[in-house]
């Protein structure tokens, strides 16, 4: 267990957690893209993978400005969210339903990240680290856009076909 004695130490701890989360996500997103059958979803995962690599670089830049290393912490929450995503990757069934499950897993990740980035942005603001806060806000905005895009894709996936097939099987 670590001891935090200042607002800056808290910021650094939270940034390390996000760095771990983002680096774990860099490894997971290509698998999600490969599993997706909806072309918009596949493209969305691939684009977010590229964006996530930029988030990692941004966090490295922030930590450099704070004269700290981004490494040294394992984000257990992201580890759990990715484990849930792996369960989806092993599901069998209608592709539209699997895509919907992938979106659900991805949106859980996005909401976790948005909470984390909102927190570190606020901590940076409180410390007067305006340039850092701006960088973190940029990432927060991108995470929010990804979440909205996932919602749009979810609304467009044709899951009625899967439900119709289930009804026919029951007859």
Automatic annotation (TrEMBL):
Residues 146-155 have a biased composition (Basic and acidic residues). InterPro entries: DUF892_YciF-like (IPR010287), Ferritin-like (IPR012347), Ferritin-like_SF (IPR009078), YciF (IPR047114). It holds the Pfam family DUF892. Residues 142-171 are annotated as: Disordered. SUPFAM superfamilies: Ferritin-like. CDD domains: YciF. Residues 156-171 have a biased composition (Acidic residues). PANTHER family: PROTEIN YCIF (PTHR30565). This is Ferritin-like domain-containing protein.
